[in-house]
């Protein structure tokens, strides 16, 4: 919706400038016909209703211009008015058709995405999980967020990531990443080698400019081992501590597809501690004032709620309140907490 408002403002300003110039130069060079520019600009990014608003505005300016320049009733003025009306009608039709096609594509992409992203179990291998997927605004294409978890001989292994791009191409690459993870996760004991093999397999399927940011995580007793390939680091909320700790790796590695050489990071995670994984839509969301979403005390308070599901949903609500006009990108949140010994 924010992008649509920008295009409306551009279209309105363009027509206003044309009308102002037309009034300044007078009847010697009638510019009323150029007012078609506003509706034609609007139909490129706005829906039918907003384009119709701009078309009506252009007609009002056309009449105002004719009145000020004393050309009302002349044959050429009627021709120019008709031209603006026809162009406005055409622009509205184009906007309606384009919006319907875009909405259909978004729905198809969402269905495919939901089909490949399996729901996370509430508990696996002594770790409780809660997740939340927050879609972007209806005018945005579906992004390439991905996640999965599976039980392996080495304990629960988890992946979260984000592929470059949006739409069906991004969802197709998500499916490839998840298929390779599911194929290799149970057979490769070392997380670094797992990342290397995934990179080698994916490189054969990706274009030269494609890449995938991922975190591979392996949950063990008292800790979680992660390998980070270009992804935003998780944040930890330790039991009894009110501040979030960003688990920044000692060495940054590029995403899959760019020949990464990551290092393993071991993070202490005791019962009561919580670890939040997320995609870039969380920290890159801007508010009305242009500020990025801050992982501060308000997020720590939300993550400390007793119920895991309530905690992750509260973070999502804080994000939506911050974004105001809507999210430009999808957001995936996954919260994990080790269970006390003997609790299942």
Write a concise synopsis of the structure shown.
The chain has about 350 residues and is an alpha+beta fold.
Count of separate DSSP helical elements: 9
Shape: elongated
- Report the helical percentage: 40-55%
Number of strands: 11
Note poorly predicted spans: none
Secondary structural class: alpha+beta
List the secondary-structure elements in sequence, H or E: HHHHEEEEHHEEEEEEHHHE
Strand content: 15-25%
- Can you summarize the main beta sheet? 6 strands, antiparallel
Taking the alpha carbons of the first and last residues, their distance comes to 44 Å
Average residue-wise pLDDT: 87
Which strand order spans the largest sheet, edge to edge or round the barrel?
A: 1-2-11-10-7-8
What radius of gyration results from the CA coordinates? 27 Å
Descriptive terms for the model:
single chain, 344 residues, alpha+beta, 5-stranded antiparallel β-sheet, 44% helix, 6-stranded antiparallel β-sheet
Report on the structure:
It is built from nine helices and eleven strands. The chain is α+β, with helices and mostly antiparallel strands. The two termini are 44 Å apart. The longest helix has 42 residues, at 75-116. The chain has helices at residues 2-25, 37-42, 48-68, 75-116, 167-184, 191-203, 280-283, 297-303, 308-323, and strands at residues 123-124, 127-134, 145-152, 155-163, 212-220, 223-229, 235-237, 244-246, 264-268, 274-278, 331-338. The mean pLDDT is 87.
Strand and helix layout:
Blueprint: H1 2-25, H2 37-42, H3 48-68, H4 75-116, E1 123-124, E2 127-134, E3 145-152, E4 155-163, H5 167-184, H6 191-203, E5 212-220, E6 223-229, E7 235-237, E8 244-246, E9 264-268, E10 274-278, H7 280-283, H8 297-303, H9 308-323, E11 331-338
Antiparallel strand pairs: 1-2, 2-11, 3-4, 4-5, 5-6, 6-9, 7-8, 7-10, 10-11
